[in-house]
Amino acid sequence: MQETEIIAKTEGLQVRIMILASREIAAWHYHTQVTDDIFCLSGKIIVRMQEPDEEIHLSPGERVRVKSGRIHQLENLEETKSTYLLVQGIGKYDFNVVA
Question: Which domain covers residue 30, as residue numbers?
C-alpha cells in the first residue's frame, strides 16, 4: 500500500509525495474531476493508461499528466521504494477502482 505525505490540500487541490514499495503496483483507477500531474522523484515508475493504451516510463525529473476520466495505474520497477510528487486538481477528489 502506498505511503503518502500531504504537502498541501484544499477543497479542489491536493499535493502529495507518494511512496511506492518495491515492485508495488497501484490498482487501475480514474478520477471523475481531477487531473493527475505525476513527477518522478526517485526510482523508476511506469504509468499505464487506457483509451488509448499508453505506457510512460518515468525517471527522476520526468513528468506525465493524466487527464480526468482516463483509467490509469502506476508500477514501481525498482527493488527498492520509488517516490513521486502527485498534484491533483482542480475539482473534487475521488478514486474509482476499475476491476
Answer: 3-97
In angstroms, the CA 99 to CA 9 distance is 28
Q: What is the pLDDT of residue 99?
A: 80
Sign of the Cα torsion 10, 69, 46, 97 reads: positive
Counting the structural domains of the chain, the total is 1
pTM, entire model = 0.91
CA 87 to mean position of chain CA atoms: 9
B/e letters for 70-99, b = 16+ CB within 10 Å, e = fewer, are bbbbbbbebeeebbbbbbbbeeeeeeeeee
CB 29 within 8 A of CB 72: yes
Give tens-digit pLDDT for 18-64.
999 999 999 999 999 999 999 999 999 999 999 999 999 999 999 99
Q: What is the CATH number of the domain that holds 50?
A: 2.60.120.10
Do 46 and 75 touch, CB atoms closer than 8 A? Answer: yes
